[in-house]
Amino acid sequence: MILMDLCKIKNKVVGKKQTIDVIIAGKANRVFLANDADKDIMDEVCRISKENGVSVITVESKLRLGRACGIDVSAACAALLK
What does the angle CA 15 – CA 82 – CA 51 come to, to the nearest 5 degrees? Predict the structure, then answer.
């Protein structure tokens, strides 16, 4: 999947809390995580994703991930829903 295609997908959530919530609920298909996100966020999202069998795709920056998701601010992480 090309990162820029994220803005076209309606079944997604953006942000740490929402991403973690859908992973734990078993509703996440794939997680996108920015390389420049805070280490604590990266560690937590990676750990929870691994525990729940969700693949994580890293992207180069929060700004690029936010833009790819169609929002005007940066985003540390996002998830595609099943």
Answer: 70
Alpha helices, H only, 14-61: 16-24, 39-51
The model's pLDDT over 7-54, given as tens digits with 9 standing for 90+, comes to 788 899 999 999 999 999 999 999 999 999 999 999 999 999 999 999
Q: Which residue is listed with tokens 């995580």?
A: 33
Using CA of residue 24, residue 3, residue 67, residue 35, what is the dihedral sign? positive
11 close to 36: Cβ distance less than 8 angstroms: no
Task: Round to whole Å and give the CA distance between 20 and 16.
Answer: 6
